[in-house]
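Entry 14. Ran structure prediction on the chain below.
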Amino acid sequence: MSARSVLEVTRARTADAAAGAAALAARLAGQARRLAAATRVGEVVSGLGTGVVLTAVLAWVAGLWWGWGEVLTVAVLATLVLLSAVLFVLGRLQYVVTVELAQHRVTVGDRAVGTLRVRNASARPVLPSVMELTVGRGVASFPVPRLRAGDEHEDVFRVPTSRRAVIDVGPVRSVRSDPFGLLRREVVWNEPRQLVVHPRVVGLAGSSVGHMHDLEGRVTSDLSDSDMSFHALRDYVPGDDRRHIHWKTTARTGQLVVRQFEETRRSQLAVVLSTRADEYASPDEFELAVSASGSFGLQAIREDRRVTFLTPRRRLRGDARTPLLDDLAGIDAQDGDHRLADFVRTERVALADASMVVLVAGSRVAAADLRAASVRLPGGARAVSVQCVPGEPVRRHRIGDLTVLTLGSLDDLPFAMRRVND
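Output, structure tokens:
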């Protein structure tokens, strides 16, 4: 046989071998694509697996083209490893996966636990696998043993609640992989659930949050010498307004008697929380501001007062306790939000009916900005600014008609408000 014939035969054989290797690689890739196309199945081939596939293809081509036995050995071994990896991830999974939370709303620092249950819903045993549960930005892994038909496995987990947040718990993914880490099959089994971590708040009983004397307001149990709601009669005391003398009773008893009234008050609180990031020196300042503003809002709700709760991003729901705390759990300090003074100016209509306005901000709000905000508040409204500086003692000073409190701890807020009312 001539040299030319030998060369042509060698090239033909090499081409056939390369075509066979390419076909094998195509079949492996097709199998991976079919796995990935299954319902809610994630990426199958890992980065290492992709490298092994490319190594196998190149080794087959190079080994057959140049006749290198060592390279062909590498190609055979890589192909066998890939085939064995495919066997590990093949098979249909029939799990029933449920995630249950003991509570869907907790307060910062409270214990939040949940339960992960995995049941084999097929008629045959399933091999061990791993369940990955997404919790916020993290992932927790739970090994699931071999389950016979109908068997169930249960794990209890704990969700961190050290900071205020709205946490997505889930989804749950089952993960099956080969021992070499070449292929990884993920199946999503449920939808995420939400855990709302509320900010910590304190009661402000006795602080008269949002009260202003108003003849058209709601009646209180406090007594007044002049108002619209009649309460009782009492003996005249020098200095009483003679217009309130009850002459008929005075004539019958022979001594002066005056009317006494129940005081009526207009009760609307407006809370303005700054969410501009550069008005706070640290995340702890912002967390203190959220807790303080929530304390004002909840105290007004407990006392059946109307509440307007404003942030530069949106208006929060101030009609009930749970909606307000849910909204507070999800707010963040943002770059580019309105400055406090500018925001108050844009919301003058929303603040027009307030009897008390509380401005809550961080330590980096300048006194000039507080003054600018206070002059834009409705006339006659009581104005208080709370500047949150963790670790600082309670201080009080005035900027014009604005009372400014420095708050270093949430537990100091009731005492600070009593100082405002002194």
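Residues 220-265 form one domain. Will compare against last week's run tomorrow.
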